[in-house]
């Protein structure tokens, strides 16, 4: 893993975006395909609301407003997916919450905090830090550390709702928000101005569509779902591979010493190594959850398919998640 170095006056950024996966041939000799998916399944005053029906009407982030507002069951599935994804990130980074070389940031912003799991864990690990989490939906838990504050905003694209004053933070962290950055080109400039000299912006993202280390993904239901999701997203004005553009955008905003760290997240247990198998098991669950929640909504609104056609596409892709002969992964 490559880390960015510290400078006295310049703001830094660390792009956390496992090493290349190889096929565990022994898994191909095992009888049957094991399933690894479930059946269903102003920075200021703290807003720690109950998880109730009103939260279902809030938007996850500005860019996703093109998809429409969440129904309650979609929000529940999305909450589960974010918890799974948090666990995958911790395994990938050897339990590090961030890779920026900061021993104990004084003030931290978790931009688009979601369920607040990263912010809460950061507050616990750094009890002398001030932790802020900002999002459009008040879905964070009520019982949080005293040094952790959550705020809600109706529009993340309006930087005044989270950038209360210039050079406020030592670290700004965000996860899986690359599509938002495409629709909000001023984010990087606002983040730069909101950091103390020597502060860091760290983004953690993955690319879609799903990839494969060989040709095993071709003409599968999972590949068809992945391509349909990307096409539907584009139709809605959402780019699914914009994290590749984050580095030049950071540099254009004034960040220096921008570093990228690349991983591969296997889908399922086909890859060598115990850590890859742990990640693969969780990644399959994460992907399935995403298919049934936000992914379904994207297809319904952007693919020109009926509900029954969308559900059929999802069901076929879900069946592929347990196939060890399919060597799929996400580029992270």
From TrEMBL:
Domain of life of the source: Eukaryota
Start and end residues of each stretch annotated as Disordered: 26-58
Comp. bias regions, Basic and acidic residues: 26-36
UniProt GO molecular function: methyltransferase activity
InterPro entries (alphabetical): SAM-dependent_MTases_sf
Protein name: Methyltransferase domain-containing protein
Organism: Coleophoma crateriformis
């Amino acid at each position: 893993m490559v880390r960015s170095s510290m400078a006295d006056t310049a703001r830094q950024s660390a792009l956390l975006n496992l090493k290349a996966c190889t096929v565990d041939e022994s898994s191909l000799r095992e009888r049957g395909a094991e399933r690894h998916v479930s059946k269903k399944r102003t920075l200021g005053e703290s807003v720690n609301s109950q998880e109730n029906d009103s939260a279902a009407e809030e938007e996850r982030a500005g860019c996703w407003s093109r998809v429409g507002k969440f129904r309650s069951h979609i929000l529940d599935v999305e909450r589960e997916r974010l918890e799974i994804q948090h666990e995958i990130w911790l395994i990938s980074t050897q339990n590090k919450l961030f890779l920026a070389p900061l021993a104990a940031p004084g003030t931290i912003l978790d931009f688009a905090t979601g369920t607040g799991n990263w912010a809460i864990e950061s507050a616990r690990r750094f009890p002398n830090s001030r932790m802020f989490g900002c999002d459009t939906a008040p879905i964070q838990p009520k019982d949080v550390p005293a040094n952790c504050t959550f705020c809600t905003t109706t529009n993340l694209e309006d930087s005044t709702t989270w950038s209360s004053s210039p050079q406020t933070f030592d670290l700004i962290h965000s996860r899986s928000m690359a599509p938002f950055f495409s629709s909000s080109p001023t984010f990087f400039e606002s983040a730069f101005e909101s950091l103390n000299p020597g502060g860091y912006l760290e983004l953690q993202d993955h690319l879609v569509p799903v990839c494969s280390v060989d040709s095993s993904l071709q003409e599968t239901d999972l590949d068809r779902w992945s391509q349909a999701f990307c096409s539907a997203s584009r139709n809605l004005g959402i780019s699914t591979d914009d994290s590749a553009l984050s580095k030049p955008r950071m540099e254009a905003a004034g960040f220096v010493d921008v570093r990228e760290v690349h991983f591969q997240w296997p889908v399922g247990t086909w890859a060598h190594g115990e850590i890859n198998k742990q990640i693969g098991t969780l990644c399959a669950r994460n992907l399935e959850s995403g298919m049934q929640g936000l992914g379904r909504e994207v297809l319904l609104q952007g693919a020109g398919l009926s509900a029954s056609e969308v559900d059929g596409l999802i069901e076929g892709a879900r069946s592929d998640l347990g196939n060890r002969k399919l060597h799929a992964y996400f580029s992270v």
